[in-house]
Design goal:
8-stranded mixed beta sheet; about 35% strand; disordered C terminus; 2,3-Dihydroxybiphenyl 1,2-Dioxygenase, domain 1; 16 strands; alpha+beta
């Protein structure tokens, strides 16, 4: 199925009534939708063990030519994210382990031209990744890094919104109005302005889809010295328990579990290598949330540390 909407659903829990049936496998991503997540690390063995214990991921290593090995992270036999060992030259450049967000496009070349036209920059690409797709690593006008993906053999994530998989992509930046204008012009996103938790939050919906897929917010002094970045949220059933388990597994809690009224309970974590991500136990049905009039923030006091990411690559 082509993903017509965007939401975050929970996998069935044997101790709780099933609220929604498991999401069917995604076979295509609409242009403008987030389609892939990827973690660059410095110790793949340790990183694999961490996410396997935390989210139950399985792995499939694939040869990637000059890039070595690229690992597909899977749940229920479906790809949900990528994992790779950062090359020495990237580490020497001072690039830390990090998560990268990918947006689907029809043409990577055309998207790059659009990105440059509207004030963004291309850090690397566009280039072919063997026969699986064509991509580029880009930076928006406010400094946040993201990637674009033109699918060929590899469509992107085969599952999203279930336990242990991405459910929300969030931009925290300085100059959020400028960022909003950029992404609307480049990807045609719809942005709904709302307030909650004493702050303004912008909820992102891809054109032609009913459910939000992410959000935008302004970096404030309470975030500390954090550069503009995209944060990836993963759905969980037990935010507190998973945050504690992440610490026991060698990770760190950046923002401890806290509630967001009517939305859920979230925490910001770092894996053993230092790559930051968020987890959230949702308190609502995604389709019902899409009908709400007011958007509410997913991370009112998050202090993630995810610097902009220079070139690399992969698959």
């Amino acid at each position: 199925m082509i993903r017509e909407g965007w939401g975050a659903t929970m996998s069935p829990n044997p101790e709780e009534p099933q609220r929604r049936s498991p999401m069917p496998e995604i076979t295509a991503h609409k242009p403008g939708a987030f389609c892939w997540a990827e973690v660059g690390t410095v110790n793949t063995k340790k990183t694999k063990a961490f996410y396997s214990e935390l989210f139950g991921w399985k792995y499939e290593d694939k040869p990637a030519g000059e890039f070595g090995v690229y690992t597909m992270c899977q749940v229920q036999g479906k790809d949900l994210a990528g994992l790779y060992e950062m090359p020495p030259d990237l580490i020497k450049m001072g690039v830390p382990p990090h998560w990268m967000s990918y947006v689907a496009v029809l043409s990577a070349d055309a998207a790059c031209e659009k990105i440059k036209k509207h004030g963004g920059t291309i850090q690397q690409g566009p280039f072919d990744v063997m026969d699986v797709g064509r991509m580029a690593i880009c930076k928006d006008p406010t400094g946040a890094v993201f990637s674009i993906w033109q699918s060929k053999a590899h469509k992107g994530a085969g599952v999203m919104g279930e336990n242990g998989t991405p459910c929300w992509f969030e931009l925290a930046t300085k100059g959020v109005e400028k960022a909003e204008k950029f992404y609307k012009e480049v990807f045609g996103w719809n942005v709904k302005l709302g307030e909650g938790g004493g702050m303004v939050y912008r909820e992102i919906t891809n054109s032609g889809t009913p459910m939000p897929m992410g959000g935008m917010m302004e970096l404030t002094p309470q975030h500390g010295p954090v550069p503009p970045h995209w944060m990836i949220y993963f759905t969980v059933d037990d935010c507190d328990g998973d945050a504690q388990r992440a610490t026991r597994l060698g990770g760190k809690t950046i923002v401890p579990p806290m509630d967001i009224p009517t939305v859920g309970r979230f925490a910001v974590l770092a894996d053993p290598a230092g790559a930051t991500f968020a987890i959230i136990k949702l308190a609502f049905d995604a389709e019902e949330h899409a009908k709400q009039k007011e958007a509410r923030p997913l991370s009112p006091s998050a202090k993630p540390v995810q610097p902009p990411t220079p070139p690399k690559k992969k698959l």
